[in-house]
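From the shared-data thread, chain only:
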Amino acid sequence: MAEIRWSHEAEQWLREIYEYIAQDNPTAAGKVVSGIYDKAQLLSDFPRLGYKYREESEGEVRILLYGHYRIAYIITDDPIDILGVFHGALKIESYLS
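Structure, as tokens:
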């Protein structure tokens, strides 16, 4: 079972997602953020659950989908680092360069 670590940037994205959705529906915002978090926790048992995005010297960057969101993470020996959470409409390449 691998450890899951959230980067500061990924935590900030989660807060921003919550705040944006909560403007209209705080209950839905909580459900979306909880769903993203729960989906990412699956990586501790199934680290290759997402699709391969690219190979880096540090490890393999992969993308896990949750609804309209993409959870970017890197697999190293251990732990798994969550790099960010991106809405599907964003150009992920701008953030993962």
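The mean pLDDT is 92.
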